[in-house]
Design a protein that fits this description.
Blueprint lengths: L9 E9 L5 E10 L2 E7 L9 E4 L4 E4 L1 E6 L15 H16 L2 H17 L2 E8 L2 H11 L2 E8 L13 H10 L7 E7 L7 H14 L3 E5 L3 H11 L3 H7 L7 E5 L5 H10 L2 E4 L1 H6 L7 H6 L4 E3 L12 H16 L7 H8 L1 H6 L17 E4 L12 H8 L5 E6 L2 E5 L2 E2 L4 H14 L7
Parallel strand pairs: 1-4, 1-5, 6-7, 7-8, 8-9, 9-10, 10-11, 11-12, 12-13
Antiparallel strand pairs: 1-2, 2-3, 5-14, 14-15, 15-16, 16-17
């Protein structure tokens, strides 16, 4: 395709694109100007006058992956209180640790580490949700990511909001003063139907509608949550949110493990989107996300990693692999979901969940230059018959060699470009030691 917007400033040379149906195309060049892809063309066509070229040496170029749900600062809690049920893990370990340790400097440092981890695994866009979320947004943007930053809302004292009666006031201030440079925008995150009152849920959703931003909430993650909401509100979590008029096209429901067919129908009719976090659900024994049923209902669906404390990796390629196999094993049907459908969830599908499908998630002229180059020379990726199958069943984040985000090379030869990784590792390691969570190494 010809370059219609002037000479490329950056050209990725000698890469292979995954075409419709998963076939792997011939060697190609990708032209980039500013933040945007300008052209894809046969290898050798575009690099003559470019300011910069990057030889991908036959690597497979895929769209930058989209993480639709993460708690980036929780890298500090990676490996803390493993092998426990969700409510024990939350109430006896995570919530107390957060109350004691979550401060702006911790949020920035630990989110920067998360940003590096995600970028080096090919993730270029993230929807993050936490407290002191401006610092998380700043760190993730500094690393080079596109960020939807959702301020956490909960009905008990939280980091940065010691008076829960002021949680909506704090959320309003977060949105109205949000001015983080880069490709960032604010959003809101109510923790769950069992930690936020009906009034809080309705007020937060009204605020998100008034300000035109996305609204995220954990929903139907565990069977215990379903029973709690039934006991307290007389119905299931999805029906409860529908009754409160929370469900609409700007609501993103996270987890959605325990839904009946009628609830899936309610979500589909509302236009709400779903973020699935299969590895977190596996680790906490929450259940298996019904990805095939959600897709059959036409619900916008993407993949999330959740936080490092419940996963413990921020790797969308691994989420793809696990979700595909979980669905197949649960249905006792190897054809229950296809690799192409799963790959879509991690890229274009995730972008659609975040309202960014006209911006990112595809490699095409006019789209944002968010691209990961996977090292095709690795033993685990040889031979390469089908690109979707290769990415879902053979690759993981460690296979990513180069990453471009917003037109800028942010990972080169597996190393972050913008961030001093050694300094970040040292700072987070020191935080863990000072906090008493880790012994001196």
């Amino acid at each position: 395709m010809a370059d219609q917007t002037g000479k490329a400033e950056l050209v990725l040379q000698n890469c292979r694109l995954v075409e419709s149906g998963g076939s792997i195309g011939p060697l190609s060049d990708i032209g980039i100007r500013g933040e945007t892809i300008t052209a894809t063309a046969p290898a050798g066509s575009l690099g003559g006058t470019a300011k910069e070229t990057l030889d991908c040496e036959g690597g497979i170029a895929i769209p930058g992956l989209v993480n639709t749900h993460c708690h980036s600062p929780m890298t500090l809690f990676r490996g803390l209180a493993d092998d426990l049920p969700l409510m024990t893990w939350l109430n006896e370990h995570i919530f107390p640790a957060e109350a004691r340790l979550v401060k702006p400097d911790m949020v920035y440092a630990c989110s920067l580490l998360a940003g590096v981890e995600m970028l080096t695994a090919g993730i270029t866009t993230v929807a993050d949700a936490y407290f002191h979320e401006k610092e998380a947004a700043r760190a993730l943007a500094d690393a080079g990511m596109q960020v939807i930053a959702a301020q956490g809302i909960i009905d008990f004292p939280a980091p940065g909001v010691p008076d829960p009666g002021k949680n909506i006031e704090a959320a309003t201030e977060f949105i109205d003063s949000f001015n983080i440079p880069g490709r960032t925008r604010p959003a809101l995150f109510c923790h769950s139907p069992y930690t936020c009152s009906p009034n809080t849920l309705k007020a937060a959703k009204k605020l998100s509608r008034d300000r035109g931003c996305l609204f995220f909430i954990h929903l139907a993650e565990t069977a215990a949550e379903v029973e709690t909401v039934k006991r307290e509100h007389g119905t299931t979590p999805a029906r409860y949110l529908e009754k409160l008029k929370i469900l609409d096209a700007d609501t993103v429901l996270v987890h959605c493990v325990h839904l009946d067919d009628e609830e899936i129908g309610l979500i589909a009719a509302s236009g709400a989107a779903v973020s699935l976090c299969p590895r977190s659900n596996m680790k906490l024994a929450s259940g298996i996300p019904p990805a095939d049923r959600l897709l059959a209902a036409g619900i916008r669906t993407g993949l999330g990693t959740d936080g490092s404390a419940s996963n413990n990796l921020l790797d969308i390629l691994l989420e793809m692999d696990m979700l595909a196999k979980l669905v197949k094993a649960n249905r006792l049907d190897a054809a229950a979901i296809r690799a192409e459908e799963i790959f879509h969830l991690g890229a274009a599908g995730g972008a659609a969940v975040l309202g960014l499908d006209d911006v990112t998630g595809r490699i095409a002229p006019g789209m944002a230059a968010d691209i990961a180059v996977v090292d095709a020379g690795l033993p685990r990726l040889t031979p390469a018959y089908n690109g979707h199958s290769l990415m879902v069943y053979s690759a993981d984040g460690g296979c990513v060699r180069h990453v471009v985000a917003g037109g800028e090379i942010v990972v080169r030869e597996r190393k972050p470009v913008r961030v001093n990784l050694d300094a970040v590792l040292a700072e987070v390691g020191e935080l863990a030691i000072r906090s008493g969570l880790a012994a001196v190494r």
